[in-house]
Amino acid sequence: MKNGIFLAACMVFSAIAGNVSFAQAPNNFGQPLGLAQNGQPQGNPQPGMVAGQPMGGQQQLPAPFQISQQEAQFIDQILGFWEFRSGKVHHYEAKFKRWEYDTVFGPPNKDTFKTISEGVIKYEKPDKGLFEVSSIQHYTPPKDGQPAQYQVRPNEVNEHWVCDGKSIFEFDVPSKQLKVWPLPPEQQGQAITNGPLPFLFGAKKADILARFWMRVSPHQTNNPNEYWLEAWPKRPEDAAEYKFISILIDRAEFLPFAIEVFDRNYNPDAQPPNVPNFSRTVYMFEDRKTYEEGGITDNIKQMFSRSFYQPALPSGWTRVVQQNQVPMQPGGQVPANATRPNQGIPR
286-299 pLDDT, tens per residue? Predict the structure, then answer.
């Protein structure tokens, strides 16, 4: 699951988080409510209509659902304007909260999270990024008459990764390895937008549709200020990391305010002798700061540049340079302009 969490963290940067507008539980560590709990495909299929086109010559998974032409056009509009909007962001930073639900190795209750984390993400166009967890509280079961608690583990080294434009550095906490993924020369300067991770730093509409089966979430609310999308992997290597991803976009900023990554073994409707699996990871973002080209001072630029120096090797860790370079993904040009979707959500 940790690899999936790392992928989700990377995905956040293309997302450039927005404001949270849906309800939160006041007495449950800010646990978000309203995100999908049942990931099984739903809807009224119309044969032959799916969002996205097959990748020529490459193996891909079959579509897990079918959608109407109207919904496909609606998704196309959303992704087009999303690409236009996120492409304007030059500098970005935000705080995030993350809830990890693990009903296999954590609390069996689907609504009780295993960990709650806080951290920060930063991005500088076109190729610098940072994801760092500042604190993690772990679920502690009831003991000696005391209720369950969430506690920080002393001396715990938290997740942390950096992209400096030439390499991606992953701080692999469980193995205590600083993994270095060198970037080929043709990707340097655009590695974040063309990297191997989903929705990574200003993802292109064409790339998303080539890599994912997209649909409007069956759990989309009637809130006119939010768009809820689901992305299901087409590629087996992506499906090995997660089952699907929910992306919640706020209409005002047209940038995601929450992302939920469902574990590859997520199966809420499993029947005996199998056990239902509700494992998933939720990210929400706050204190967002975005700067567009021409709207950022030299001092702020310098602050960002200091954030992305070569990362130091923690004591007791090993630096491991990966032999395989990050694979190239097809790119594309950000449209000079785009139209914000105005039509209602297809039902």
Answer: 887 777 766 655 55
